[in-house]
Design goal:
The strands form two sheets. A seven-stranded parallel sheet has the order 1-2-3-4-5-6-7. Strands 8-9 form a two-stranded antiparallel ribbon. About 40% of the residues are buried. The model has no long low-confidence stretch (mean pLDDT about 95). It has one domain: Metal-dependent hydrolases (TIM Barrel, Alpha-Beta Barrel), CATH 3.20.20. The longest helix is centred in the middle third of the chain and has 18 residues. By secondary structure, it is α/β, with parallel strands linked by helices. The chain binds zinc ion (2 copies). One zinc ion binds next to loops.
């Protein structure tokens, strides 16, 4: 019998440009389903390209911090709230991010690739005039470029998230097709003392797998990776801790015995 996962470490609320969920509703949902830790990780995507949906991912971090502290105090007897952010990494933002992460008392920072060489792979234009594999390879290579420029994050987010959005999604995708670049990503993450996350948004998207997929999680474990957070990437209350009931067995089958939560940017390891 597996233990329940106690914390969701990837959540968005209305301070993120693509969520309308009040923070308090996300917290109350977490309480209702028995979580004891919640880390809010609002989007901060500086220089997100204006275009197809005209979304603004610049986070008002001061307003976010203020609301967070009010709710942290209010719910302190019931749930341990942690203050996080999901940075949309791009190589030219390295020095800006270096300053930003020092400006607020974050518990946890996810670094993610949402924009690849100026384009968001969420949109079909990212796949025009080339094969899907070429587009996926560009995504993975850009993760390495980001890690070389800036690595003051705690985990790299949803490593194969691009396969949610390709024309054939993950139908023809496997770790084996991209093992060279993915191994380099995982080794770089480990060597820099960072971790990765198991993001159940992939299950919500109908991939049948988290992001990254089990093969990558198992490879990370095999290479000696230990820091692994778990997050739903929920943007609405009903998706908080999405599919977390499947995760203990899934991670154990990949070789993990622990998962990770963060406080004050320090990892704590919890048995599965
Ligand atoms: Zn993300
Ligand atoms: Zn996210």
């Amino acid at each position: 019998m597996s233990r329940q996962i106690i914390g969701d470490f990837h959540l968005h609320t209305s301070f993120s440009g693509d969520s309308e969920a009040p923070m308090e509703q996300m917290i109350r949902r977490g309480l209702d389903i028995g979580l004891t830790n919640i880390c809010i990780t609002e989007h901060m995507d500086r220089d997100y390209p204006t275009g197809e949906d005209d979304l603004d991912f610049n986070l008002d971090t001061t307003a976010y911090a203020q609301r967070f502290l009010e709710l942290k105090e209010k719910y302190a007897p019931q749930i341990d709230l942690r203050f996080g952010v999901e940075l949309g990494l791009q190589p030219h933002l390295a020095s800006w991010h270096q300053e930003y992460v020092k400006s607020f008392p974050f518990d946890f920072i996810i670094g993610s690739s949402h924009v690849v060489h100026g384009r968001d792979p969420y949109y079909s234009s990212f796949y025009n005039d080339r094969t899907e594999d070429e587009a996926y390879l560009e995504y993975f290579e850009s993760i390495l470029e980001n890690l070389k420029c800036f690595s003051d994050v705690d985990v790299y987010g949803h490593i194969d998230y691009v396969v949610r959005y390709g024309p054939n999604s993950n139908q023809f995708y496997s770790y084996g097709k991209f093992s060279d670049v993915i191994d380099e990503i995982l080794k770089t993450v480990i060597q820099k003392g960072l971790g990765i996350e198991c993001n159940t948004g992939g299950i919500k998207y109908g991939l049948g797998h988290p992001n990254p997929c089990e093969e990558i999680l198992a490879r990370y474990c095999q290479l000696g990776g230990e820091i692994l957070t778990i997050g739903s990437d929920a943007h609405t209350p009903q998706h908080v801790a999405y599919a977390f009931d499947q995760i203990p067995e899934l991670l154990k089958s990949c070789g993990f015995r622990y998962y990770t939560i963060f406080k004050n940017r320090k990892p704590e390891f919890i048995p599965l």
